[in-house]
Amino acid sequence: MVVLTGEILVDLIGRNALSRPTLSYNGTLGGSALNTAAILARLGVPTRFVGELGQDFLGDWALARISERKIETRFIQQLPGIPTPLSLAEIDTKGEAQFSFYRAFGDTQFRPDSAAMARAKWFHFGSLSAFAPRNIPGIESLLEIALEFDVLVSFDPNLHASPDEAYWEQLLRYMPFISVFKASLDDARYLFPKTPNDPQVLLEHLVELGAPVTILTLGAAGAIGAFRTRMMRVPGVKVAVLDTIGAGDAFTAGLIYGMMKQEIGSRMELLTWDGTQLPVILASSCHLAAITCTVEGASPPEQPLHAWWERFG
């Protein structure tokens, strides 16, 4: 069982020109960890999501879509009087998205049920929502359970701007729980703005945070990873890019799937793993991210996903 927590959003995706008198958007389910959960579920991995929605039409709609994707939903709470969060994504001519977020949780607190961690073999969290003061105690409670039961934990910062000092203080509190730290090149630049723009140097800075496995994704250029004293690099996969929404989340799904295939069932087993299959896992994750870029939104198309599973599953 993979347990994930994070923000649940309704994504409004548009390709609007400034000259247009009206705006047009397609609504879909979003949220970084939820995108990862949806792909893992499609790959046949038992998947549970812990999160919150508003008790409104969008919340009902989102909960129905999550359930359709065969993600366990009993630990998703609907909060009365709270609107379901929205993300507005404008796609530019290169397929890159510019995001605006709309959230209104008021003075509520994220209070996950400890039973959500039952049978967990892997726990994943990340994004800015993990650093919102209302969410931190709840996430820390789940991490404490993961530590107690030797559950592997992965983290994806998924930043959209340089973090402040409070972010760094909380990140350092999270790091002792994290076994797999996966960041994008943009994440690393935001985290280390004074560091030379060299992927290997940025990876070395990420490694110093202390996770046993550290991955830096490079977009079309592939990914580099570090395990113990070894560093490895895999190339990207050339595809016709429609948009890049969810590419990093797909990579994370591939990473979790690939590492679970190695039958690494605990933090202790990760420490004794030889890591020889990590380049293959990185390559498969790059392929999964690439096929997600061939369609609009964060859900990879069925036939390429099946072909990916036949090759890497």
Number of strands: 13
CATH architecture verdict: 3-Layer(aba) Sandwich
* Rg estimate, integer Å: 18 Å
Helix content: 25-40%
**Unreliable runs:** none
Mind telling me the CATH class? Alpha Beta
Number of domains: 1
Shape: globular
How do the strands of the widest beta sheet line up side by side?
Answer: 5-4-1-8-9-10-11-12-13
> Whole-number average pLDDT?
95
Secondary-structure element series = EEEHEHEEEEHEHEHHEEEHHHH
Report on the biggest sheet.
Answer: 9 strands, mixed
Looking at this structure, what is the CATH superfamily? Ribokinase
Number of helices: 10
Describe the structure.
With 313 residues, this protein is an alpha/beta fold. It has a single domain (2-16, 26-101, 118-305), classed as Ribokinase (UDP-N-acetylmuramoyl-L-alanine:D-glutamate ligase, 3-Layer(aba) Sandwich), CATH 3.40.1190. The chain has 10 helices and 13 strands. The strands form 2 sheets. The chain has a 9-stranded mixed sheet, sandwiched between helices. It has a 4-stranded mixed sheet with strand order 3-2-6-7. Strand 9 (152-156), helix 4 and strand 10 (180-184) form a beta-alpha-beta unit. Belongs to the carbohydrate kinase PfkB family. Residues 2-301 form the Carbohydrate kinase PfkB domain.
